[in-house]
Amino acid sequence: MKEIRTQVGIVGAGPAGLMLGHLLHRAGIGSIIIENRAQDYVIERVRAGVLEQSTVDLMIENGVGSRLQREGMPHDGIYINVFGKRRRIDMAELTGRRITVYGQNEVVKDLIAARGSSGRPLLFEVSDVSVHDLESDQPRIRFTKDDEVREIRCDFIAGCDGFHGICRPSIPARHIRIYERVYPFGWLGILANAPPSSPELVYSLHERGFALFSMRSNAVTRLYLQCAPDEDLSQWPDDRIWDELLTRLQSDDGWKPNVGPITQKGVTGMRSFVAEPMRFGRLFLAGDAAHIVPPTGAKGLNLAMADIWRLSRAVARYFESGCPDLLDQYSDDCLRRVWRAQQFSWWMTSMLHQPVTDNPFDSRRQRAELEYVTKSRAAMTSLAENYVGLPIEESISGG
Ligand code: FAD
Ligand code: PHB
User: Fold this and answer.
1) Is the CB of 383 within 6 Å of ligand 1?
2) What mean pLDDT do residues 304-313 have?
């Protein structure tokens, strides 16, 4: 067996693992990133699109934001279409902050390029990954690469391997508490070669369910439809998808999305999930490995980036001074932001999906809430403040 030594062993090359490797490299700290998928798969996986300002700032300040600055699409507001009435929430005016639309796969591409320039190891297509001796000061990661078993000995392991990874399940059950809610619906998402017909996102609630209009560039529209969590894609030929999108999204002012060839389709289930604490011994969980939010609040990638900012600072402080204080605070500090985002994502999801319950009272209440949220300046400010995201160092419930 081949043994390798590094300071931080990182499991997973999604946005969390790659950004951690990058920030550690900038602090002069060595890491090895291992990923079980192929590089092309990781780059092409279509997922998030909305970056909070703090995520954008983090990327720019750390030298991985130049393409984001050129190609990202800054948005000052969003629309909410309440049963045909499309109303705008001016986030920039209400909060002084904005969001940027830039595909997660572009973020991943930029971070893989930065890793390449750093010369530090990033291994794709590894298998049989396992983590060991988590409570010792020299934990180990074992894996197979090119039919050879290898072992990384390190000071810390970062579990950045997403919801289905192996790091969280390696923590003994008595040391971790899980909070979870699974929703009775999912999203059918498409990418279409059609120029966006609105410069800003449109979240829509229609009698037939939720729909979302988003984009990836001046030529590509990204759209989602509420569907069953286990929806069978073979029942959704392109014409049916467009009929449903047009019905749910078009508004009384005549707005509707442009139609074009569909280039990608997928169904995602929706859940809220938190594992506490986000640490066991020398294993630190970050991003989707520790928490999942339903995508209606556009928070998942941004939460992952906020965790990584904290973890990189905590590890850097430890190696500079031997002081473990930030490592000890890591989980509590992250979880304050995580729970704020959980509450917001749950709220957006319940407000915008059909049916909330089978009690007609709840439908009328939901409509009243949407009327309020799109008309009251106080309510719009609250939505906007959460949507654009708190500065990374702040969290309301933390005081
Ligand atoms: P992942 O991206 O899941 O990365 C984990 C990596 O670990 C993967 O590459 C995986 O292959 C690898 N891995 C898994 N197991 C192993 C193993 N055993 N060994 C080695 N490697 C392993 N978030 C937003 O902020 N804004 C949005 O607009 C938004 N929209 C979304 C829309 C959809 C349809 C979906 C599905 C998600 C959306 N999200 C959004 C959420 C966002 O995509 C995730 O929160 C984000 O990918 C989390 O990054 P991560 O690095 O923690 O995890
Ligand atoms: C996206 O563009 O993929 C997107 C936008 C907003 C969301 C979720 C996903 O809330």
Assistant:
1) no
2) 98
CA of 271 to the centre of ligand 1 (A): 14
Statement: the pTM of the whole predicted model exceeds 0.90: yes
What is the structure's pLDDT at 244?
A: 98
DSSP-assigned letters across all residues of 280-306: ETTEEE-GGGTEE--GGG--HHHHHHH
Beta bridge partners of 145: 148
Q: Return mean pLDDT, the chain.
A: 96
- Going from the C-alpha of 349 to that of each of 149, 183, 246, 394, 397, the distances in angstroms are 44, 9, 21, 24, 21
Q: How far apart are CA 323 and CA 338, in angstroms?
A: 25
* Gap between the Cα atoms of 42 and 33, Å rounded: 13
Amino acid at 207: E
Instruction: Quote the pLDDT of residue 397.
Output: 44
Nearest CA to ligand 2 atom 2: 49
For the four alpha carbons of 34, 35, 40 and 46, in that order, the dihedral sign comes to negative
The verdict on the CB of residue 340 being under 6 Å from ligand 2 is no
First to last CA, the chain: 49
Structure tokens at 360: 């007609």
Whose structure tokens read 């990874």?
165
Whether 34 lines ligand 1, by a CB cut-off of 6 Å, is: yes
